[in-house]
Amino acid sequence: MDLLNTLVEKGLRRELPTRDEALAVLATSDDDVLDVVAAAGKVRRHWFGRRVKLNYLVNLKSGLCPEDCSYCSQRLGSKAGILKYTWLKPEEASKAAAAGLAGGAKRVCLVASGRGPTDRDVDRVSDTIKAIKDQNEQVEVCACLGLLNDGQAERLREAGADAYNHNLNTSEGTYGDITTTHTYADRVDTVQKAHAAGLSACSGLIAGMGESDEDLVDVVYALRELDPDSVPVNFLIPFEGTPLAKEWNLTPQRCLRILAMVRFVCPDVEVRIAGGREVHLRTMQPLALHLANSIFLGDYLTSEGQAGKADLDMIADAGFEVEGAGEVTLPEHRVSEGGGCGSHEGGGSCGSHEGGGACGSASASTSMCATTTAEPEVANEARTDLVAVRRRGAGTDLAPNA
Ligand code: SF4
Fold first, then answer.
1. Distance 253 CA to ligand 1 centre (A)
2. Where would a tag sit more exposed on the chain, N or C end, judged by fewer CB atoms within 10 A?
């Protein structure tokens, strides 16, 4: 238990754990998972109380992407039967956003597939931000449009965007295995552009793409270095019709260990459970609220989540409360510093656009205090029954799930 006591003390002081300590969290056994959750929960409650921030995704433009991110159902050559449509009109996006806000969300994440926006796209999104803010002044708007060119982050900021999401997704060392049409450095550059323009940076990862424990620790340490305000943690949704369709590597316990590790490394940052929450945590979702202080309400970009009402019931039943529009998410020191942790998609959330993965093999499940690479985790059975392509909300005539 020395490991967990040390990590709690460091988390309360915002002190960076050593890499061996982070790896040891991933290497703990299923028998120890409640101890790990309890320890990381102390850090979560210290910085965020029992509040849960709700975020709502609006997919402004779905599918038809020229990039080749292996995890993504919207990629070039994807055979996944997702909705495909071009830019929503500002009033259509505003209507979808309103449903999420009525359900309790305080942030709307405007996401569009593609390598990055043209200047005309930035104009369109600016009009959409205005339409949403005209309806609700307090709403936080995060844009997630891919790689940014010079000046685009500033224009989004001027248009009223509060945040920009672009995920690192995985370690620098494995990035080339999951995407060949852009680089890890491109992604880092966009997060830095958002930061420099005064946008709250959101950047996270996708777990379950076959990466090693070292890769997971690498990407989380790289995120801490970039200092986003929010870190979405996606769990790969292995969509049929994508190259990673067979990558069912995660167990609920493994997901909890990953979230705990992220909490220990980024203790005072908004840690958000993003795509894959229902698919991989399943009935263990309420335990994850002790680690993350933020989730997406309702559906993801191309897949359906559980009913928004079920999200709200889960939060209440687990003894947490939905963060109100007037409450500040981040601890005071981060707000005054103007910094924090954030990203584009990964299985269904913002950040990298979709959530998928790379090829890899490792995972962990050994004994507490292990400090070396873990044994491969027993792979899950494929649970394609848990993956439902989104057929409602934005881009359809059916009401959104919120
Ligand atoms: S993650 Fe984004 S850039 Fe990559 S294929 Fe999907 S939509 Fe395109």
1. 28
2. N
